[in-house]
């Protein structure tokens, strides 16, 4: 529980209302919330992480880096731990209200019907059975009415208290979007001289079971194996060895469990090499499918909504030895009077539409169980 909750809420709400680009996050297994704020409206986009060398702040990248949405970098002109925030901290921001036009974060987003979802799954299964692809991820949107910008900060703080094993985040870039979420999936973590990434796939409701009581079906095991093999191929392409592999093991994320394989290796890359590694790694088959280009093409063809930054990546960067990038999952885009909750799941040739829908409902409950209380 945050002792200075009122002060933190007031500060973050002021940043949101004042149109300051800002971010707040809590790393997995850490109790402290980190807050960074940019004091001006000079937004910085980037194409490759190496453009941000020597910069300190937060990156926010879309799902499709070749699409219409840009990847953004928020400077941490103001860098605070939540426990340091006081009533007078607002004075650090200055008195000038920043203005933005054509703000897409206030636009309308439409939810996905169950009938449309079934139709999309069946269409994907047809392509998968024809061996055009091995796997593809289908996402949908659930609209939450009556919960919008005024509830964004409180929803974020609720998530930090509920999910200490996830990357809980709150990021706002005026004119681009405001998102909150609790991601279970690391894309790339660099801490001092160690690199870590994970292959995460397969989903079940945990219910009253213990982790060692979970049984995985062949479809789920194969789905996770696709992701693992993809990551191992990227290692090979970048001539990376000395890999420590752990798993697959069953891990819990809220009300669901996943299959996870962890990879660790020594940091022997410069910033350019690390940037290219991230570029090749994202998006992984866990959010896209295989082969990657065919999967993205099919997603763009069948999904009626724009994923924007859902299934992209985000996180703080400090230096080459301090980077924490996570996949934008279990997340919501904040609208004026609504939140658009994005959920997805892996479709294979053996998928059953009703079960796939059920899986997305389970994933949605990860956030709904917390923010609707």
UniProtKB/TrEMBL annotation:
Reaction equations catalysed: chorismate = isochorismate
A Pfam family: Chorismate_bind
Domain (Chorismate-utilising enzyme C-terminal) ranges: 115-363
Record keywords, A-Z: Isomerase
Top enzyme class: isomerase
Stored InterPro entries: ADC_synthase, Chorismate_C, IsoChor_synthase
Keyword Protease annotated: no
EC number: 5.4.4.2
The keyword Isomerase belongs to this UniProt entry's keyword annotation: yes
Entry's family note: Belongs to the isochorismate synthase family.
Protein name in UniProt: isochorismate synthase
Source organism: Paralabilibaculum antarcticum
Lineage: Bacteria, Pseudomonadati, Bacteroidota, Bacteroidia, Marinilabiliales
């Amino acid at each position: 529980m945050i002792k200075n909750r009122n002060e933190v809420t007031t500060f973050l709400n002021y940043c949101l209302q004042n149109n300051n680009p800002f971010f707040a996050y809590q790393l997995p297994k850490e109790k402290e919330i980190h807050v960074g704020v940019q004091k001006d409206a000079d937004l910085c986009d980037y194409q490759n992480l190496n453009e941000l060398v020597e910069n300190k702040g937060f990156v926010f990248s879309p799902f499709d880096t070749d699409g219409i949405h840009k990847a953004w970098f928020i400077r941490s002109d103001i860098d605070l731990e939540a426990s340091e925030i006081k009533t007078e901290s607002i004075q650090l921001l200055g008195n000038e209200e920043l203005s933005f036009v054509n703000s897409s974060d206030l636009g309308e987003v439409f939810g996905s019907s169950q009938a449309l979802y079934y139709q999309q799954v069946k269409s994907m299964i047809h392509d998968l059975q024809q061996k055009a692809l091995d796997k593809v991820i289908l996402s949908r949107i659930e609209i939450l009415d009556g919960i919008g910008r005024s509830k964004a900060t409180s929803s974020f703080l609720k998530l930090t208290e509920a999910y200490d094993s996830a990357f809980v985040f709150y990021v706002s870039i005026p004119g681009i979007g405001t998102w909150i979420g609790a991601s279970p999936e690391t894309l790339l973590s660099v801490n001092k001289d160690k690199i870590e990434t994970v292959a995460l796939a397969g989903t079940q409701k945990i219910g009253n079971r213990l982790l060692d009581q979970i049984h995985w079906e062949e479809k789920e095991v194969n789905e996770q194996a696709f992701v693992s093999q993809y990551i191992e191929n990227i290692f090979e392409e970048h001539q990376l060895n000395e890999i420590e592999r752990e798993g697959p093991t069953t891990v819990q994320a809220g009300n669901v469990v996943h299959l996870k394989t962890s990879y660790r290796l020594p940091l022997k890359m410069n910033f350019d090499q690390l940037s290219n590694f991230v570029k090749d790694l994202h998006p992984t088959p866990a959010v896209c499918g295989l082969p990657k280009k065919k999967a993205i093409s099919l997603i763009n063809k069948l999904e009626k909504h724009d994923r924007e930054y859902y299934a992209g990546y985000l996180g703080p960067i400090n230096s080459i030895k301090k980077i924490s990038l996570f996949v934008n999952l279990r997340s919501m885009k904040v609208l004026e009077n609504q939140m658009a909750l994005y959920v997805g799941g892996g479709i294979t040739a053996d998928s059953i539409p009703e079960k796939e829908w059920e899986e997305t409902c389970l994933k949605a409950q990860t956030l709904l169980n917390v923010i609707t209380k």
